[in-house]
Amino acid sequence: MTTNRALDVQVKRVYDDPEPDDGVRVLVDRLWPRGLAKDRASLDAWDKEPAPSDELRRWYGHDPARFEEFADRYRQELTTADGRAALDRLRDHARTGRLTLLTATKDLPHSHATVLADVLTSRRA
Q: Is residue 59 pLDDT above 70, yes or no?
């Protein structure tokens, strides 16, 4: 069943305290965040599949000058069968209410989670 209702997706750092209106909180990093104990993570799921490949992540290196190309390459990765399946899982979470994508990245505007949120909320995705 499909719906025309826009999905409510936000991005936050996994280190930030959870808030009551976060909805479903999903960590979308391939690696577990440094210094964060699993019992203190306050998340509903850890889904590694929608994260960029190790090769793409290493190439990008969180260099803002590479962000546009990184975003294009990452969007391409999300068109694979595994990528589409991961997007479907995240959309299922978002259809129940707000979805908060969590990442350890310090620079949220230049993070894969921000690209992922855009893909999830895009009408063309």
A: yes
Question: Which run of H or E residues covers position 85?
Answer: helix 81-94
How much is the mean pLDDT over the chain? 92
Helix H or strand E segment including 9: strand 9-13
What pTM was computed for the model?
0.91
Q: Tokens 């899982």 correspond to what residue?
A: 89
Tell me how crowded residue 84 is: count the other CB atoms within 10 A of its CB. 12
| 24 burial level (CB within 10 Å; 0-12, 13-18, 19+) | middle
- The predicted-structure confidence for 100-123, as pLDDT tens digits, reads as follows 999 999 999 999 999 999 999 985
Decide: helix, strand or coil at residue 14.
Answer: coil
Residues linked to residue 24 through DSSP beta bridges, in sequence order: 99
d(CA 66, CA 57): 11
